[in-house]
Records
---
Amino acid sequence: MSRAPARFPDPALPRGSGRRALVTGANRGLGRAIALGLGRLGHHVIVGARQRAAGESAAAELQAEGLSAEWLALDIASADSIAQATVVLGTLDVLVNNAAILVDQGVPALQVPLEVVRRTFEVNTLGAIALMQACAPGMRTRGFGRIVNVSSDWGSQAMMAAHQLAYRLSKAALNSATRVFADELRGTGVLVNAMHPGWVQTEMGGANAVRTPEVAADTVLWLATLPGDGSTSGFFHDRQPHAW
Ligand code: NDP
């Protein structure tokens, strides 16, 4: 069991200095820890969540610590919801594509309904791509952007194996999208990276998971606060390169 770091976030990480950061799926699990970490680093945190009560509660948790935060209604599988958030999305400095679903855990590829594959892509891949498309132009214009795609080793080609076809393909495609966006934005000040958080104690990870959300969030915070000459088009785990 990996324990929570003595201090969260790592005090050696650079300060956000009021930069505007959106975390999708920030109402619970890993997203909530990422939002808290970004807030404590001095970002203005935009808590992306599709349910009002859950989103407001997560934003209130940050505000109760004196941090700058607001809730943004955002269902990443809904084009309408993303369209309604266009103005906010155009102002972001940091985008963390964290929200995802895993609905075919343990299901063999021979049995998974195509509808499950489609739905998983809608959230895990197309939702993240739509947000990158909405956010990147403003980042490029302002010459600063950090995009972090929360992926999974289940999407790594090097580790591809049986079961979870929908989830695996959705994350493999997200990894590829990371590299395409990163290359198109190279030299603009916008860095785009993916990361694998490990097996995390959340609803998705389940009760037997070995890492706390805070430990898993560290690499996201590191990527969200990279200096201008930091990595782009990378895939990381615990701040180290991970096999694609
Ligand atoms: P959880 O299932 O605990 O949380 C998922 C979050 O995504 C929730 O906030 C959920 O919101 C949100 N979400 C789901 N669908 C949508 C949608 N359509 N629009 C907006 N938000 C949505 O997952 P984790 O915190 O464990 O996972 C976070 C990330 O880490 C994911 O990308 C996951 O794939 C990745 N990951 C997790 C691992 C683990 O062991 N936990 C391992 C490897 C990768 P709501 O509450 O409304 O459902």
---
Amino acid sequence: MSAHDRHGEQPIELEEIGTNDSGNPSFDSVLNARLSRRGILRGGMGGASALLLGSFGAAGLAACGSDGDSTPTPTPTPTPTPTPVPAPKFNFNAVAKNVNDALTLPDGYSYQVIYAAGDPINNATAAYKNDGTDVGFDFRAGDHHDGMNWFGLNAAGTARDAASTDRGLLAMNHENITAVFLHANGPTTVAGLRPQAEVDKEIAAHGVSVIEIRKTDGKFALNRSSNYNRRYTAQTPLALSGPVKGSAHVKTAYATGGDFARGTLNNCATGDTPWGTFLTCEENWAFYFARATGDDAVRSANEVAALKRYGIAEGAKGNGWHTAGNTDAYTRWNIAKLGTSPEGTDDFRNEANTFGYVVEIDPYNAGAGAKKRTHLGRFAHECAVYAKPVAGKPVVFYMGDDSRNEYIYKYVSKAVWDAADADKGMAAGDKYLDEGTLYVAKFGADGSGQWIPLTMANAAIAGYAGYTFASLADICVNTRLAADAAGATKMDRPEWCSVNPKNGEVYFTLTNNSNRVVAGASGSKLLPDAANPRAYEDVKGAATQTGNVNGHIIRTAEDGADPASLTFKWDIYLFAAQSDADAAVNLSSLTAENDMSSPDGIWFGQNGLLWIQTDDGAYTDVTNCMMLAALPGQVGDGGSANVMNKIGANTLEVTTRKGKNPSADSLRRFLVGPKGCEITGIAQTPDFKTLFVNIQHPGENTKAADLGDPSKYESHWPQGGTARPRSATVVITRTDGGTIGI
Ligand code: FEO
Ligand code: CA
Ligand code: CA
């Protein structure tokens, strides 16, 4: 989500504020003491790294963590020299940074828009006029296209076909709205109340699309006649599933049994599953709820702690949806305690507890409904990405919580993988996602890490002073508090993650953190640590930005190459920076061809090509947001690095683990978006010849007062001329029909 104002009414975003002022250490220095620094240097990052590279895999990674003082060195077994596989080469030249109101691609590539905000998804809905008067978003593309996945269909369109390259479903998120352009005159308020028609449109423009696209005459287009096409909005009824279902946390006047909810909200990034379903992740949902001043006095200490931790302190104004009418479709956005029932079955005090989850949808089966998979925890979910499943082993999903100083998580299923479940849809989701263990990550200063279970068996959680946990459901609702109790590492805003298909390593973007300081740390202001090692100054126009301004990408390698492992190794794959920044900031030695700021989307194609997308507000004086292609190495391919942080007169040196610097042959800018957009959402056909990318909120910095003068719109993309800008999905192909990127 962008650093800019999204809703005209709410200038600051929760992910920017951060609500984590728990007293957690930033990194562990006790539990990993056995992993001596000398052992790490010798076994993992120092002289043995060449050996590790040569025998890459479980054994090499495990050796990385062993203590050389107590483990005898085994005699190496000679192995035949493998025939070297030539390294893949980029098939495009770097696109230059620019601030054009255009989507810039390399020579030899072209794009077409296939699904723009407001496009009708059936034949009964009128074409989109794009003047702010359109209605009927239940059957139109929502706004703010975000994460997206491709689900292949057979030629007849009757069933799943993972190998299909020319007919498929796209499932995608509509994270938010650009209210200025959604309404004729921008968002309005009349006597303190939001007009119902505006709120109805805003609610319907959020959520998820499932659409069928088909290639005919060599070009993809939306199939408006498809029965697969549908929308899920912030008002669609869906089920709660997993430990939270039926608990007192989620009982409302709408669902007195706590087993249903309405709507999915602020859907950011996504995932899919080994059984062919779609996962849509609820991010900044907290921002939509109002709660009156004085509500704390009628709440329990636990409730007050939880609401504060999730950013809905008393006095929260929400975005005004609760003011649009007296029916519960509107009043549910006010979560003040108004009723007298003990559990909240006569009001909506618990409504916010029904958001913040990973939601599973079967794109192939509209009738299967959607389920909030509560065991994957409740936070500002960015995406949920699975490790390659292995028969007889648990299924593992990795996730980030995008707010300043929040955490990285994984979920490990109780059931072990059975390939016979690959076509079972939501029934497989019931099996693997409703029962398991949620873990939070703790990064050691020495390049090791731990996954800490968030369960009642964890004494730090059961005995936590900041919140009294009573059950697993409690942990799944108040995951951030449980992670605080567990002593997790506070990170620089975890965005997407992705698993390298070549070796199972997991890449997490940490987009930026203005709360990193060099001196005067207190509350949410944190000193840098090994896993979040930078705090510095960066100039943008007349402003000086401070903190981890440009973000970084951290990666993990599970010990034993086992996704269910309780320990891992890590290093920082990449430090984002402007190429002309001081060497102490541009630690990965980025150049004009690959410098970037605020990595957000990150996604491996199954060919091993890594795509990095930016959602930036720091470097936008020089360039619009972008997407880069990368051919990364592996954890431990660099070494130890010292970061000399400096803000003002204060300095602080931090030691970290840095990957090998990228080169022009391993990191290259592939596209630059139009003005005011972020680049997010990516999917690909399995032949690697068609890439789908979402362009979110072009022109979002336009003021409602300027609607009468199109020359003042920040962007007119994609229609051009004097048109209002629109979020949109584009299809990118090579003009010679070849594969994308490599
Ligand atoms: Fe919706 Fe954290 O990006
Ligand atoms: Ca994002
Ligand atoms: Ca700058």
